Amino acid sequence: MSRTLELLESRVNDRTQWHFVVLRDADHLAVGECSDSLHPSKLVAELALLAPRLRGRDLLAERTDIVDTLARRVGTQARPGAFITATLMGGVEQLLLDHAAQAAGQPVWKWLGGSAPDPVSVYANINRVPGGREAWEVAATALRAVAAGYSAVKCAPFDVAESGQPLPATGLGRLRAIREAVGDSVELKVDCHERLSAEEVHALLPALEDLGIGWLEDAVAIDHVEELRALRAATTIPLAGGELMFHPAEAGIAVSEHLVDVLMPDVKHAGGITQVLSIARSAPQLAISPHNPSGPVATAASAQLMAVCPNATELEYQFGETTWRSDLVGGLEHVADGRLHLDDRPGLGLTLDTRHPSLRVLWSSTL
C-alpha cells in the first residue's frame, strides 16, 4: 500500500489554527505539528517541494538526511521564508521521530535515551482564551486557571490597547487585576511580545517588581544585545526569551553574558525536538522552558524532549482555548493539577483523530 503525506488544518477559533503533517502508511499513522507559521499556503508550497525528495525513500534509515535537507534550506533563505521552512522542519522532524519510535515500540523519550519521566510541570498561558480583554475579564480567566489546578499563569497584557489609554498603563492595570484576583501565592509571568519601547519597559520595572512578576518574556529581542544588557542591569526580575531561535548562536551573547535566565526554544520554530535539545545543551547553565502556545501534538513533542533534557524546567500550556482539545488526539492528552502526564505509548504518545470535525486536508501527496 502506498504512503501518503498530508497537511491538515484544525480551525480552533478566529485567532488560532493548528497545522499537522501526517504520514499514513497502511494502518500506521505518524504526526508532527507545524502551527503558527503565519503562512499556511507557503507551508503547502514547501511540502510540495519536499515530497518528491521523500518518494520511495526509507524514512527510518534516512531520517537524519531528510531533516538535514530542510535545515540547509532554512540556511539559504531570509525571513519570512526561513521561518516558514524552519516551522515545517519542526513538524516533519516530530513526525519522523514519532514514526521511528513507534517502529521501535518505544515512547520518544525512551527512544532518545531518557528514563521514565515524572509528570511535566506546566503553566497556564491565558492569552488566547476567548473573551474580552478588560482587566476584570483577564483576571477572571486567570482565576479559572488557578481553580483548574495551575500554580503559575502567563499573560500578554500589552497585546491589546484600550482607546484613550497608554498601552503601558493598560497592561499594568490588567496585571494588577490578575494579582488581586489570584493572590500572592500564584506565579505571574509576563510576555511583552516586544510591544513596548525600551523606555516604557524600564519605566514599568518598579511596578512589575512590586507585583512579584515571575519572569519578563520578550521585553527585548534576544539579539538586541545593548538593550538586553541595560535591562539585565536594571532589574532582578528573571528574563526569558528565544522563542524564534533556530540555532544556538542566535542567543550566543545573551547566554555567554548571562543576560537571560530562561531560554524558550519552540519545537516547531526551532526545527524539531533534536534542534531544541541542541540549543538546551549549548546553555546547560540556563533553565529551558519550551515556548508552546500550541496544539496537543507540539505539546506532546515538547513534553517528550523535556524528559531527556536535564535543564528543562516547565512547559507552557495553552489554557482554555477550546473544550475539545484532547478529543483531537483521542483523549490522550492528560493535564491535571498543573501536570502533563506522559505514559509508555510508543512514539509521541498520542494519535491524531483525523476524522475530527475541526480538521480539513490542505494538501496531500503519495510518497
Protein model, in words:
With 367 residues, the protein is an alpha/beta fold. It has two domains: 3-105 and 354-366, Enolase-like, N-terminal domain (Enolase-like, domain 1), CATH 3.30.390.10; 120-340, TIM Barrel (Alpha-Beta Barrel). The protein has helices at 40-54, 63-75, 81-104, 108-111, 135-147, 167-182, 198-210, 225-234, 252-256, 273-282, 296-306; strands at residues 3-11, 17-25, 28-33, 120-125, 152-155, 187-191, 213-217, 239-241, 262-263, 287-288, 315-318, 335-336, 339-340, 359-366. Strands 4, 5, 6, 7, 8, 9, 10, 11, 12 and 13 form a ten-stranded mixed β-sheet that branches. The protein has a four-stranded antiparallel β-sheet with strand order 3-2-1-14. The chain is globular. The N and C termini lie close together (11 Å). The model has no long low-confidence stretch (mean pLDDT 95).
